[in-house]
Amino acid sequence: MIRSIVRGNGAALPRRIMKNADFEGMVETSDEWIVQRTGIRQRHVAADDETTASLGEAAGRAALDSAGLTPADIDLIVLATSTPNNTFPATAVDIQNRLGMHHGFAFDMQAVCSGFVYAVATADLYIRGGLAKRVLVIGSETFSRILDWSDRSTCVLFGDGAGAVVLEAAQGTGGIADRGVLAASLRSDGVHKEKLFVDGGPSTTGTVGHLKMEGREVFKHAVGMITDVIEATFAQAGITAQDLDWFVPHQANKRIIDASAKKLGIAEQKVVVTVDLHGNTSAASVPLALSVAVADGRIKKGDLVLLEAMGGGFTWGAVLLRW
Ligand code: ACO
Is residue 155 annotated as a catalytic residue, yes or no? Predict the structure, then answer.
């Protein structure tokens, strides 16, 4: 059978780093509160010349370089983002053009923080369905542009950045020892749409709006939803938490990551944590975490890796793959 293997990966971060202490003159908060409640120590914030498209392009180029490929080798770009450069066209086609790619096709995927997990699962289906042989999957966000910088309960939590992987069709046996995407499970439930949303849009206010979140409500649902979807993915693949080499969760809050890993019985040393460095970068958080763990030599070819995310909607999902 056809498998979608990871051929390369990359990342891009805005130049400017904003430390927790930098908020102290802006809103009533402290480094101690932010670290204790979230694990976040710093985040990158985009300058005017850094956009979802430019960061996504840079991450895409880095992934292509690591794969030893050029844009000419790619058939499809799937961009996961909730902060597109424009309402339309899709920022994916902007990135396609920036890469000098005038063949194939490109589209955006909007599942907020679960966007990258949705995009990998979607790209896998395009590859296995025969519509594409190589897909550039990018998560890129500039959440700094939709934050209310006077709201201390949200502005300290998010950051900007981009990460990408190149998925490629390869022949597999259909077994769990194959490289590539092995199982995926996606969920959403719009009953929760007002717990985490942006209060503007083309069809309602005609404005972009700002992020609103009932943090405690999100927290309350997060661990149960994450563990449910991961257990469904384990069952699909016929594995247990003990079989995993690496758990790469969405990086929103260290307490949610710790509680999910504990409930699933995933050992602490197998959990990749980058929320301290990047904050919550929404759809970019999982590929950014991947880029750190691949660059420092933790994630290696042949490792069994579990990706997971949960976000606005709510949306949630997991992908199991062998690197
Ligand atoms: N600094 C200092 N105090 C603050 C801050 C801040 N930055 N923000 C809120 N507080 C205050 C609140 O006003 C509140 O004060 P009060 O008791 O006087 O009313 C107090 O701290 C406690 O507030 P809580 O909201 O109960 O704090 P909690 O422990 O729940 O932590 C947090 C808040 C960090 C937001 C947590 O609820 C959380 O992480 N939730 C999940 C968020 C999340 O994961 N979001 C991403 C989802 S992914 C996506 O799709 C974007």
Answer: no
- What is each CA distance from 269 to 206, 258, 319, in whole angstroms? 46, 11, 20
Residue 113 falls in the annotated catalytic set: yes
Q: Bridge-partner residues for 18, per DSSP?
A: 43
Residues with CB under 6 A from ligand 1: 29, 33-34, 37-38, 112-113, 152-153, 156, 196, 213, 215-216, 218-219, 222, 252-253, 256, 280, 282, 311-312
pTM of the model: 0.97
Q: Where are the domains of the chain?
A: 2-171, 180-322
CATH number of this structure's domain 180-322: 3.40.47.10
**Residue pair 50/160 in contact by the 8 Å Cβ criterion:** yes
Given the residues 44, 210, 250, 278, select the one marked as catalytic: 250
> Dihedrals φ, ψ of 261, to 5°?
-60, -40
Q: Look at residue 102 in the predicted model and tell me its pLDDT.
A: 97
Write the pLDDT tens digit of every residue in 4-39: 999 999 999 999 999 999 999 999 999 999 999 999
Which CATH number is associated with domain 2-171? 3.40.47.10
250 tagged catalytic: yes
- Contact status, residue 264 vs residue 242, Cβ threshold 8 Å: no
CA-proximal residue: ligand 1, atom 44 (nearest)? 252
For residue range 80-89, what is the model confidence (pLDDT) as tens digits?
999 999 999 9
Residue nearest to atom 10 of ligand 1 (CA): 153
